[in-house]
Design a protein that fits this description.
Order of helices and strands: HEEHHHHHHHHH
Strand content: under 5%
Number of domains: 2
Oligomer: single chain
Number of helices: 10
Distance between the termini: 21 Å
Largest sheet: 2 strands, antiparallel
């Protein structure tokens, strides 16, 4: 299966819901009514995990051992904590990249994507996940795929805001290098950005359309 086919494979929808008046704890995919004791345990577990990861950060500042730091983060994050761990998850993905473990970073970012689009989940930012994947692909000189991820990131971010917000100048700045690598100078890139902006304003494009849309411009 190709890289982008894997990325845009549809994800099954979660349908479970709970009354808003009930205390709700999110286990990255399921909601349940938390008793006071359960809630206390989750809060205690989150405090323990956050404290341990902060200590690992401090230790890394002293010894520079990235693999030791990764091991601590994995211990607390790969067991699906029931608290909003998105920032720590993103930090772990970036650690994999720093350690030269791009496959691990990619796989973890894909898992984060699944967690983030779950309608019952707390936390998560799919546009940031896609942007991090864009950076990996750019560093691996996979420029066409990198452009797809970059466009996806901006599309998701635009639709997450009430109304449509697209920072066209920042997009052009982020895309300039890979656009040139794909044989397109800034004038051509700006024309693409203008068209992309028009489509966003009328919600004419969805993430599933991005690969074909980008390929139509950056052949």
């Amino acid at each position: 299966m190709s890289l982008l086919k894997k990325l845009f494979t549809s994800i099954g929808e979660t349908t479970s819901t709970m009354p808003k008046s009930t205390t709700q704890i999110t286990d990255r995919g399921s909601m349940f009514k938390a008793t006071s004791a359960e809630l206390s345990k989750i809060l205690a577990d989150s405090d323990k995990a956050i404290d341990a990861m902060h200590k690992a950060d401090d230790q890394y500042d002293q010894d520079g051992d990235i693999n030791k730091r990764i091991a601590v983060y994995e211990k607390y994050l790969r067991v699906k904590p029931q608290w909003n761990s998105f920032n720590f998850d993103m930090a772990l993905a970036k650690m994999y990249e720093k350690a030269g473990r791009n496959n691990d970073a990619w796989g973890y970012l894909n898992q984060m994507y699944i967690w983030s689009i779950d309608p019952t989940a707390v936390g998560g930012d799919v546009s940031k996940i896609r942007f991090e994947q864009f950076k990996i692909l750019k560093n691996e000189t996979k420029y066409a795929d990198a452009m797809v991820m970059l466009v996806s990131s901006y599309l998701i971010n635009a639709y997450e805001v009430k109304g449509i917000y697209f920072n066209k100048e920042k997009f052009i700045k982020d895309a300039k290098t890979i656009s040139k690598k794909l044989g397109h100078e800034e004038d051509s890139l700006r024309a693409f950005a203008d068209d992309f902006e028009r489509k966003l304003k009328v919600r004419q494009i969805q993430e599933k359309d991005v690969q074909q849309y980008v390929a139509g411009y950056f052949r």
